[in-house]
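re: that chain from earlier
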Amino acid sequence: MGEDNDLILPLKEWVDLSKLAEEQQQSSLPSPENIRNAQMDYIARAVVVAAVVLDKLLILEENNYNWCPQDISIDNVHLEMGAGDVTMLRQRNTTINLSSLQGIQGVKLSIPQNHTSNGGVSPDEIFKKVGLILYSLFTRGEVPPSAGVEAENNTVEEAMLNARGRIKRRGDELDDSSHDESDSYEEQAGPNKGRQKVSVQEATKTFRRMNISNVEDALRQKGVSSSLCRLIVDLIIAPEEKDTKFQSLSDAVAELQQIMRRPDACFGRDTDSNNSTTDLLSLQFGDGIVGRTEEVGTLLEASARAQMDTESSHICLIGGTAGVGKSYLVESVKDALTSNGWIYLSCKFDRLMRNQPLVTIASAMEIFVQQLINVRGLPDGFDVDAVIATIEQSLSASGIVVLSDLVPSLRVLYRSVFAHVIMDDSEDDLNYVVAEATPDEDDGDEMGISSANTLRNRLHYLFGRLVEAISSVEHPIFLFLDDMQWADASSLELLLSLLVSGDHDDDNTQCLLVAGAFRSNEVDEAHMLSRYIQKFEEAMSVNVTSIQLDVITKSATHILTSEALLLPLRLTRGLADVVHSKSLGNPLFAKSLLRQLVDENILRYSLPKKRWVWDINDVKSVSVDDNVAELMKHKLLRLPNEIQDALKLISCFGTKVSKDIVSKLRSSSENSDDAITTFLEQAREEHILDHNDQVYKFAHDMLQQSAYDLMSPEEKGAYHFNIGLRLMSSVSTEASYDALIFTVIDQINNAKRYGVTEASMNISCAKMNLQAGKRSMEVSDFVSAWQYVVYGISFLPEAKWESSTYELTLSLHEAGALACFVNVDSTNLQINLGEIFENAVRFEDKIKAYYILAQNLASLNRLKEAMTTVLFVLNELGEDFPEEVSPEDVQTAMMSTQRLLDGYSKEDIVGVPRLKDEKKQWAVKLMDFLTPCAFMMSPRLLPILANHMINILVKDGACKESAFGLSNYSLCLITLRHDYEAGYSYGKMAIALLESFGAMGSLQKVKCMLQNMVNYLFEPIQSTANVLLESYEGLRATGDNEFACLALSMYSDQLIMSGCLLPVVEKKCEEFALRSMRLHQLQYCRNLCCTHNRVLSLTGNAEGKNPFDLLRDNDIATEDDLLQESLSTGRSGLSQQIYFSRMFTSFWLKKYNKAAEFAAQFRNAGRISMRFIDIYCTFYEGLAVFHLARCSTDKVIKSKWMDIGEKSVDRFKVWQEHSS
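^ sequence. v structure.
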């Protein structure tokens, strides 16, 4: 051959060597299992060789090679091996090196030079030659049985004569059950009467079956699987049916590739060995995914990006119609992800279970926490102890307690935290706990009015911290949200917060990829999900990947059908064409149709033929429904009535239901629990349900929908009501009270939706809806809360304001008003408030409604109306305020407050008894609300508000809002009397009082204000700056995003003055501005952009970056644009921030004239008080003007600069007296 013998190995020699390796492996441990494993290892090597050989032959065929019969022979096939492999393999005195056997790099054909093509070589003859090569390869070098040789060398008649004796011996083994291939016989006359005469046609069939059987037997004895046997046999002996013959070598290549792709079909248990009849009669759809190679690649690419880019958030949105395979696509990458360290979490939204607040996303976290507890189901190398410690450190005790309402297993994981929680049974609030674990909680009645948004923000922040604590680059989180078209608003808000509002920095790394699947044909522009998708796409920090799944191609349907039947593509081509046509390429439809064909016995498994068989005309005649839902509905209707009833029952819960709940139920026919379980198990065998140790789950939500739609509206109502009624008795004794009460009330409400109620239960149902509504608010789900309130009101009698239902009616409308306020539903807000104002008997019963009204007016920037409303209520409560506040009123209030607090120490303030009078509590709460409004609209009112609040504190008792009266008075002392030491002292009192209440949110807010207005005069800047950063974390944890971003803005200003390196400050400012934008705090984002711009100017990087690009506002592209807007809208604080930045930059760039000019503009833009920024502006202005005065030769100009400088010195002397 002229080839390098060290690189070329004849195929025959490779077979001998590989056989020797098999024998060596078997002899090393002569157990049946090891012998079988060695056999399968040989076959695995042979499959790879077969693939390489077929590929080479296919190339020749595609290049129109003129075949000669002698060309295609195992003698002419040589394998190209790696360097040194051939030499190593030929060292027979050693153990065969398996890696050398597998080092095949190509194939060469040695074509005999004395053979030339004579033309006219038939494809069947080429296929036979190829089949013989494969036969020899898989039988370890053997030649086919004698019948096969005869078939190759003799005519049919000659072969038939030689086979007559064998026919008689093997007659009992023939396929007598196949009527379409049965033999016909005739009796002979004469001396041979009674002998069977076999016609040429029948003998040919008989001989053919014998020939096939002999070849199959020989292959099977060598451990070759059914699929490989069929490939080799059909190459050697061409099938009789035209549609199942090989058309080209490409068919053989495709079939071998299919076998290699499905090793379960190739190397798994054959259909004739050790399989139960049930397995044989079941379609094998497997776990693989068909026709989605590109989409799988896109999803894996998105996961790779998410793992590398932790500075951004990542979401992959997967759209498509029902049954197109969205869930299947995501689940197909699960193994690949988890094997690479990913934490795979999934949950599914449900059209019937949409009211339970945040239960869907929380369920994914609940499963993960259970995995932590049980230490199973986690990726390799996952440090459980480290993650548990990180979660506790990140969330703190209070955060763990808050999240435990949604993730109950946290109570088990952190028993020590809950051991310190004290339950107060005297409160009605379901979640009222006292101690440091739940700081700053209002009581059940006032819950959420003053902090509805902070409740939501806090929960979002804690979920984000939980994700950060769990995830890492080594173990990222993959969160799959299925059926997002049914997602509730609260869940979408939480998802938006996780993606947009996270703190992506070195200390807070969130490595998360969200995959969301939804029915795109059900989500139009008006759909709620569309609005959130738009928000994802517009967010700068979110990387969005979109995948749109259409129907699968005809070739994909061919593969799906082929693999379901464990038959090669060429045998199922005709069936697959019909399936694709009828299913329109919908994978779920196609699978359901194949199951329907099995159910109707059109597609059946033939034991004699060891394969599925069908009549294509019968398949074509099957009528199918227009959609998947109808097809599945008809499938369910074919089930026994008892199974249908059981499926109807659990369909009322949505796509899944816990086994614990099922155990509490009886079906409408009063079957026992065991009977229900039996019927559900039968449904599982019909591939309608899946289940594990905890839940029953419909295999697809379309099956749940079909089972639910088996019932009429009346039946649905009856089922829902019966379920709710039977579960209601378990509520009082059930440990997981919250989850069960939602289940019960959802069933009762669904029954009412279908017109089924029980008058005697209406009041109980109204109370349960109120309870569910309040519980929803506690986890910041105000959308669900409103829905529960609406149902609760609907259960009330017509005369609902009468005494027997008065309190319940009032509570429902108060809860409804609060929910509508948070949901920005002004129409229903006014309706609920109107009901209260018109029907409430006592003024005290209207206070909460007035409070909500004032909150709503303030949110609409109607501050004057909000103040008028609150002042009216305060006057009704006995707290009189002047209509117009004069300077004398201010002085009188300041003196009165001074007398009230005279002699009180910090310890005395903390020891004041708690305020019990409900009216006084409301008065202090309302004045606390009024304080920021007065700060903007009527500053003179501030000392009077402080006086009233401290008067109640001293005379009636303290509540947490009392601290704001002290802090308000502290600032009044500083700004009005310049009494910094007293102001500092009362600020400390305010902090001590809040600490005694454990009111962490209010505490951080007061600290934030005092650090910027007072404390920096008495404490080092480095200290106050760090406190501001701590305040940010504390305010985020309590949900006060507005004050949190204010703290960041203040911290950035102080950081520059504290001696921190400018490159560090630059990075921090950029990071903080982005955080503020993510938290929707535009005003503070603008401040931080100005600070960032100041630092860039000082470091010389201003030309390379534009911080104002972050604002994404076409009207504000530069700092000049922002200044003009702030001046035109009267935002003096922002104007002063810009002038200060310009003054500071000009000073350090030695542009002292500009620095003095900007300092003057700073003073003219707004008031000068004791803010941090005021003092430093005065300081740098003084330095700049004194320098200008020193350099000036003009006496008039010099005098002007000196006057300004002396005023700066005078102000500083006053401040210096109070600075330590």
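The longest helix spans residues 32-62.
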